[in-house]
Automatic annotation (TrEMBL):
Residues 1-25 have a biased composition (Basic and acidic residues). Residues 58-138 form the Retrovirus-related Pol polyprotein from transposon TNT 1-94-like beta-barrel domain. The lineage of its organism: Eukaryota, Viridiplantae, Streptophyta, Embryophyta, Tracheophyta. Residues 1-37 are annotated as: Disordered. InterPro entries: PolX-like_BBD. This is Uncharacterized protein LOC106763508. Pfam families: Pol_BBD. It comes from the Eukaryota.
Length: 169
């Protein structure tokens, strides 16, 4: 008996497409840059948002390789990108039109700058790349009491968020 005949291994993309077909209210997307440069990979989960929301929330995403937003008006110090396209699990694509910085206001009133944010008009939510943050020296702690915490290089707490009902941060 061969085990792989009884329990076939599915690729992540196949599994996501099957979940989308079930229509359970949540959608998972994978994006990939199509250019000669290093591949861009993104995984995002959304629920009922149908277009670029006016919501100012940012979701921490461990599968997202770059910070992304659908809000062009938030970008400062921006530049057009070379021919980059995001490819989604449903085989649709969207152009990464610009890369810029976004200024955000913290709860305490201070401002922070998020550098190198991709403007993707067809995004449904704003994403912060955990991998990108770690490369810049931040520390991400997930777990204890269903929360995630982000610390800067000096171990100062930058943000703390509890897990949502849809298991996102």
């Amino acid at each position: 008996m061969r085990l792989f005949d009884r329990n076939p291994i599915r690729s992540d993309e196949q599994a996501l497409k099957e979940e989308q077909k079930k229509g359970q209210g949540e959608e998972a997307y994978i994006a990939q840059e199509e250019s000669d440069s290093e591949p861009l990979t993104l995984t995002a989960t959304t629920s009922t948002v149908s277009s670029c929301s006016q919501d100012q929330l940012w979701y921490l995403d461990s599968g997202c390789s770059n910070h992304m937003t659908c809000h062009r008006e938030w970008l400062v110090n921006f530049a057009e990108t070379k021919k980059s396209r995001a490819k989604f699990a449903n085989d649709s694509t969207s152009k990464v039109e610009e890369i810029g910085d976004v200024a955000v206001r913290r709860k305490n009133g201070s401002r922070a700058i998020i550098n190198n944010v991709f403007f993707v008009p067809k995004m449904r939510c704003n994403l912060l790349s955990i991998g990108h943050l770690i490369q810049k020296g931040f520390t991400v702690v997930m777990g204890g009491f269903n929360k995630v915490e982000l610390f800067d290089k000096n171990k100062n707490l930058i943000l703390r968020s509890k897990i949502s009902k849809s298991r996102t941060f």
